[in-house]
Design brief:
By secondary structure, this protein is an alpha/beta fold. The protein contains ten helices and twelve strands. The protein has three domains: 79 residues, Orthogonal Bundle (Arc Repressor Mutant, subunit A), CATH 1.10.10.10; 96 residues, D-Maltodextrin-Binding Protein, domain 2, CATH 3.40.190.10; 103 residues, 3-Layer(aba) Sandwich (D-Maltodextrin-Binding Protein, domain 2), CATH 3.40.190.10. The strands form two sheets. Strands 3, 4, 5, 6, 7, 8, 9, 10, 11 and 12 form a ten-stranded mixed beta sheet that branches. Strands 1-2 form a two-stranded antiparallel sheet. One of its GO terms (cellular component) is protein-DNA complex.
Length: 294
């Protein structure tokens, strides 16, 4: 597959019509159609469902669209790494991260780094740990900020001098809002809104499983989430109580929500992780050095 053909295919998927995509790419519509048809012949399947005035990806076309985004993104990133002289520090640093108040430390280091190297651009991608590790594997991110991630021989890591505390977000009219801290027994009876990485579909996982202990065998999980904003809406509507990290969800006067820490305390350590076999750019190496200084 040629990169040009993949770029053309992505443009068609984004624009929704061959004519509009051809205009965006500054090519003729027949030339664009030939490129897409060539991809379909090469892969042996239809990639687009053609309608009278529009096109949309088939199921296999959606798969190719995701893969093409990864391939084109990696090619562009690689080209950018070679586009600068050796005597300057410039380029792009791609960081994947889960939601964490500890990202403020990363943000502070980014600010200080750009003050010294203004030609370096940072790109943040927020996702859950499984997605972040997959992006590292495919070379889409240089670094990942992971919470309580078990050591893996495929990756090197730098442990940050921070940790995130777990707690629960409840409605202000919830009886648990009157408690100073929350125990496993307090949560055993009510429906919960859980981070998806902490719920396998049948049982609890990760640090929350250890915190609940035997009380976790019969917990009722009403919903799972990967980003906390929408999950907070579920709490406001009375769907359940949300387990989350401190500092991610606005709570307190005027919000209708209260946050209470778990007791015994449950914390997640923070690691910056990168692929051991990858060759980082000069900008990435220098940024890691700046993180080590913390």
């Amino acid at each position: 597959m040629e990169l040009r053909a993949l770029r053309y295919y992505l443009a068609v998927c984004e624009c929704g019509t061959m004519s509009r995509a051809a205009e965006e790419l500054h090519v003729t519509q027949p030339a664009l159609s030939r490129q897409v048809a060539g991809l379909e012949r090469e892969l042996g399947c239809e990639l687009l469902e053609r309608r009278s005035r529009s096109v949309r990806p088939t199921e296999k076309g959606l798969y190719l669209r995701r893969r093409a985004q990864e391939i084109v993104g990696l090619a562009d990133q690689t080209s950018a790494d070679f586009s600068h002289d050796d005597d300057i520090v410039a380029g792009d640093i791609h960081i994947g991260a889960g939601e964490s108040a500890s990202m403020r430390l990363i943000a502070q280091r980014v600010r200080a780094f750009r003050e010294r190297y203004p030609d370096v651009r940072f790109h943040l991608h927020s996702a859950v740990a499984t997605d972040l590790v997959e992006r590292l594997e495919h070379g889409l991110d240089d670094l990942a900020v992971l919470m309580s991630y078990p050591e893996d021989e495929r990756y090197s890591h730098l442990r940050l001098p921070l940790s995130d505390a777990w707690g629960v977000v409840v409605r202000e009219d919830d009886p648990l809002a009157a408690c100073e801290v929350i125990s496993p027994a307090d949560l055993a009876a009510g429906p919960l809104v859980m981070p998806e990485r902490s719920w396998t579909g049948e049982r609890l996982a990760g640090p929350l499983a250890a915190w609940f202990g035997d009380e976790g065998d019969d917990v009722e999980v009403a919903a799972t989430y990967n980003l906390s904003f929408n999950a907070a809406l579920l709490v406001q509507e009375g769907v359940g109580r949300m387990l989350t990290l401190e500092g991610l969800t606005p709570a307190g006067p005027g919000s209708g929500l209260s946050f209470r820490l778990l007791y015994p305390p449950a914390v997640s350590i923070i690691d910056v992780v990168w692929k051991r076999t990858a060759t980082p750019s000069r900008a990435v190496r220098l940024f890691l050095e700046s993180l080590r200084e913390t």
